[in-house]
Amino acid sequence: MASLAAVAALLAAGLSQPAPAAAVSSSAAATAASVDVTTFSQGWTNPWAISFLPDGRSALVTENETARVYRLRDDGSKTLVGTVPKVVVFAPGDAAVGGLLGVAPSPTWDGVRDKSVFFMHTTATETRVVRMNYDGKSLSGYTVVLGGIRRGSNHHGGKIAFGPDGYLYVATGEATQADLAQDVNSINGKILRITKTGAPAPGNPFGNHIYSYGHRNPQGLAWDSKGRLWSAEIGQEATDELNLIQPGANYGWPRCEGYCDVKGMTNPKATWDHTAATAQIAVVGDSLYASTLRGFQLWRVPIDAALGGTGDSAKAAVFAGRALRALTKVPGKNELWLGTTRNGDGKDEILRVTIH
Ligand SMILES: [Ca+2]
Q1: Ligand 1 center–CA 230 separation, angstroms
Q2: How far is the CA of 113 from the centre of ligand 1 (A)?
Q3: In whole angstroms, how large is the CA radius of gyration of the chain?
Q4: Cα of 183 to ligand 1 centre, how many Å?
Q5: What is the Å distance from ligand 1's center to 136 Cα?
Q6: Contact 268, 257 (CB under 8 A)
Q7: Domain residues for 293?
Q8: Does this UniProt record's set of keywords contain Signal (predicted)?
């Protein structure tokens, strides 16, 4: 447990002012992956999401409040490709409250025949998924794909990602209206599964946009090597959750937060104290990795342990010292790109996390 004590010490030192970043070894020595963390790209302001283009060597990165979109290459260089219009942040300075959120290039994007890139963002009145054209140089056009997602002061979800089935999965928050999460006629507090034109994907469990429900503020989506969908969401007063997502399942909010024993509600596979603010997830090999905003940590959760009911005891912090959000796996490598957040204008970084 020495490594967890080290994490605690870092946190005690780092909560008000970011402490020097440090990698810590996992507590589960027999199965632990060790990580090397290096600063990879600097000059960022609250990066929210990182999503690779099909070339596998460069990614689009959104900035939350500036609404800017950059292309980040594997040498760490970045190029501004445009700004998403109509983005409204209600409370500048607090990255929790909307702005430009997720990004997902079309899986067949080539910049010529297929230029489609999808974004999720808040406007003055709603949260929406939009499509823009990216020709490899700049963004143009703006088409609303799915509007009418309610926005509140907070809890906007925001992650979007194409699944192995080619459909777009959209994590929506309950916009501080908790009862919407249990309403299968509302698209808030859900994981949605939609086509590129915003229609319900074929085979959805309720015949509408909804794939799963009972979510509070989900910001993480990732698939494992077996094609299983996982999601992370931030809790209210007690518990952040890592959930294994099944179509049609009810993940409990607001009746349940974390584990509970209510018929028809699906329990999480791992949890954190809600003060961690567990944001995004990515899969490398047989483990899930989770970034935390207020926990200042990157966590590793062995997938087999999570499936077997021991996710909480098996999870371990592998890096600590920075407020973290944007997280994605690098295609073809045992590597993550991980964005810091809330360090002030131009002071965030994208970190390269190499997993051994
Ligand atoms: Ca839940």
Answers
A1: 13
A2: 41
A3: 19
A4: 15
A5: 40
A6: no
A7: 2-355
A8: yes
pLDDT string in tens for the chain (356-residue length): 334 333 433 333 333 333 344 554 444 333 456 999 999 999 999 999 999 999 999 999 999 999 999 999 999 999 999 999 999 987 766 555 789 999 999 999 999 999 999 999 999 999 999 999 999 999 999 999 999 999 988 899 999 999 999 999 999 999 999 999 999 999 999 999 999 999 999 999 999 999 999 999 999 999 999 999 999 999 999 999 999 999 999 999 999 999 999 999 999 999 999 999 999 999 999 999 999 999 999 999 999 999 999 999 999 999 999 999 999 999 999 999 999 999 999 999 999 999 99
353: nearest Cα among 290, 264, 301, 286: 290
Residue 13 DSSP SS3: helix
Q: What is the CATH number of the domain that holds 227?
A: 2.120.10.30
DSSP string, 288-319: EEEEESSS-EEEEEEHHHHHTT-HHHH-EEEE
> Number of folded domains in the chain?
1
Distance (angstroms) between ligand 1 centre and the Cα of 11 equals: 26
Centre of ligand 1 to C-alpha 226, Å, is 23
**Which run of H or of E encompasses 169?**
strand 168-171
* Residues having C-beta closer than 5 Å to ion ligand 1: 251-252
User: How close is the Cα of 293 to the center of ligand 1, in Å?
Assistant: 19
The residue type found at 323 is A
Cα–ligand 1 centroid distance for 338 (angstroms): 25
Length of the chain equals 356
Q: Tell how far the Cα of 177 is from the centroid of ligand 1, in angstroms.
A: 16
Residue 240 Cα, ligand 1 centroid: separation in angstroms?
8
Q: Which two tokens stand for residue 190?
A: 């859900």
Torsion of CA 193, 48, 214, 299, to 10 degrees: 110
281 CB-contact burial (10 Å; exposed 0-12 / middle 13-18 / buried 19+): buried
What is this structure's pTM?
0.91
For ligand 1, the distance from its centroid to the CA atom of residue 157, given in whole angstroms, is 14
